[in-house]
């Protein structure tokens, strides 16, 4: 059927609008099509766009940072997340290569454990194994301390348990992943663990019935823990554990092109396909590129990011050249640029910031399904805050039912479609008192 707003074919149209609550959305749709009336219905993309337009007119979107001509938008606003929930009272357990207590999560960490038995530090001094787990945990649960509250995760009030599984060489074995999952099961009551985030992978594509990681995931789900896993970033690869588990919620990649406009969404190439046991993965897709993530503190990258932004913000020409001379060698730049024009130095700095994917001296933008998974973990934390009685099965059902499929993309690649943060939470909220207009589906 045709949507009367965009005149595009859609499987279903939304006809139920909730009176005064949705009046702003109705008004936006009528501005686009004056003849339109709610009883005619509209497609979900047009409704999404109307809601975004309303937020924009109300200045409801947080500030963004502009670098090298593009904007990196905060995740809660980008996903249209429910403003009343942030994972309060919910504990998320991250199993990853390693961690550092970044300022955005430090005060909410309940426990950090090294389950690789490598006897290496997991907290005091960042190591090469610390960056991935630090980024995934901050993407999902960061409170924006290092960005004055701008770059927050969807579960910014949640508690964290962090389990390191990479050995001294950086290798992550299936054995260590399985041990970490079992640790989470054994300690779930002590730390009130409700969600398990796995942005790691095993080496083999085997049946979930014989794979130790998959067997541990099944036990975790049976114990009431929601398991969210990254699908992987190779579209030509086989689906491996833990992404192959029928008990886990596997997240593939979405490219929203760093905008608020649903019509710009496309697939981010990520692992998909049929598992050895005949299950189709992924289950859902979520943003996997242009993700604001922390630069690991006390590293050369962090130090140099500070230098680059200090330089590019220097307005006085003489000071710019003096600062450049003092830092060119450390940054690996040609010191002779000081003999040329200011514009040449500023262009070099802007190009370097863009190439390094820097947003601020403390953040960069990252990509991969490793970061799509914690975004969904954040949504699940909001759902559990709204209704703590939800089971893993019910959460997967709601996420799938409220997802939006991308047109012209096979179900094989996207599962149920793009996660819808707002509608997933609204679907489990018993008393609706939203601050912004919501359409019930």
Q: Helix content range of the residues, please?
A: 25-40%
Q: Note the beta-strand portion.
A: 5-15%
Low-pLDDT parts are: 59-70, 431-441
Question: Quick one: biggest sheet?
Answer: 8 strands, mixed
Termini Cα gap: 17 Å
User: How many runs of DSSP E, i.e. beta strands?
Assistant: 15
Give me the Rg, rounded: 23 Å
Structural features, described:
With 441 residues, the chain is of the alpha/beta class. Helices cover 34% and strands 15% of the residues. It has 14 helices and 15 strands. Strands 3, 4, 5, 6, 7, 8, 9 and 12 form an eight-stranded mixed beta sheet that branches. The longest helix is centred in the last third of the chain and has 18 residues, at 369-386.
Summarize the structure.
This protein is an alpha/beta fold. The chain is built from 14 helices and 15 strands. It starts with 22 loop residues before the first helix and ends in a 13-residue tail after the last helix.
Which structural traits does this protein have?
disordered C terminus, eight-stranded mixed sheet, 15 strands
Task: Compile the SSE list and pairings.
Layout: H1 23-32, H2 44-57, E1 65-67, E2 70-72, H3 75-78, E3 91-96, E4 109-114, H4 130-141, E5 159-164, H5 174-186, H6 188-191, E6 193-198, H7 212-222, E7 226-230, E8 249-255, E9 266-268, E10 273-274, E11 280-281, E12 284-287, E13 291-294, H8 300-312, H9 317-331, H10 342-355, E14 358-360, E15 363-366, H11 369-386, H12 392-402, H13 411-414, H14 421-428
Parallel strand pairs: 3-5, 3-6, 4-5, 6-7, 7-8, 8-12
Antiparallel strand pairs: 1-2, 8-9, 10-11, 13-15, 14-15
Helix pairs in contact: 1-2, 4-11, 5-7, 8-9, 8-10, 11-14, 12-14
């Amino acid at each position: 059927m045709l949507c009367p707003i965009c005149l595009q074919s859609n499987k279903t149209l939304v006809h139920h609008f909730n009176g005064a609550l949705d009046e702003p959305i109705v008004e936006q749709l009528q501005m686009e099509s004056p003849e339109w009336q709610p009883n005619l219905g509209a497609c979900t993309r047009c409704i999404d766009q109307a809601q975004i337009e309303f937020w924009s007119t109300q200045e409801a979107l947080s500030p963004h940072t502009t670098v090298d001509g593009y904007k990196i938008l905060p995740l809660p606003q980008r996903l249209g997340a429910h403003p009343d929930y942030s994972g309060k009272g919910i504990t998320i357990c991250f199993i990853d290569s390693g961690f550092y207590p970044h300022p955005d999560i430090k005060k909410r960490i309940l426990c950090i454990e090294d389950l690789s038995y490598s006897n290496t530090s997991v907290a005091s001094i960042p190591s090469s194994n610390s960056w991935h787990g630090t980024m995934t945990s901050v993407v999902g649960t960061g409170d924006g301390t290092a960005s004055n509250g701008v770059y927050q995760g969807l579960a910014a009030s949640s508690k964290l348990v962090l389990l390191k599984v990479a050995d001294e060489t950086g290798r992550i074995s299936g054995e260590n992943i399985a041990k970490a999952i079992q640790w989470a099961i054994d300690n779930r009551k002590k730390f009130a663990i409700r969600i398990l985030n796995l942005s790691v992978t095993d080496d083999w594509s085997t049946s979930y019935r014989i794979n130790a990681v998959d067997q541990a995931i099944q036990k975790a789900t049976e114990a009431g823990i929601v398991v969210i896993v990254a699908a992987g970033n190779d579209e030509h690869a086989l689906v491996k554990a833990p992404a192959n588990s029928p008990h886990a919620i596997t997240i593939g990649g979405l490219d929203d092109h760093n905008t608020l406009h649903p019509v710009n969404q496309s697939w981010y190439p990520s692992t998909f396909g049929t598992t050895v046991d005949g299950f189709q993965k992924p289950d859902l897709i979520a943003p996997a590129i242009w993700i604001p993530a922390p630069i690991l503190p006390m590293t050369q990258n962090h130090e140099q990011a500070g230098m680059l932004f200090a330089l590019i913000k220097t307005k006085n020409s003489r000071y710019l050249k003096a600062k450049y001379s003092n830092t060119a060698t450390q940054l690996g730049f040609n010191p002779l640029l000081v003999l040329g024009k200011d514009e040449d130095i500023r262009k070099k700095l802007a190009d370097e910031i863009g190439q390094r994917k820097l947003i601020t001296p403390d953040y960069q933008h990252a990509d991969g399904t490793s970061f799509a998974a914690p975004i969904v973990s954040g949504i699940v934390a909001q759902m559990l805050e709204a209704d703590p009685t939800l089971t893993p099965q019910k959460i997967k059902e709601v996420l799938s039912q409220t997802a939006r499929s991308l047109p012209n993309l096979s179900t094989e690649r996207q599962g149920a479609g793009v996660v819808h943060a707002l509608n997933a939470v609204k679907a489990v909220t018993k008393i609706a008192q939203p601050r912004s207009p919501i359409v019930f589906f």
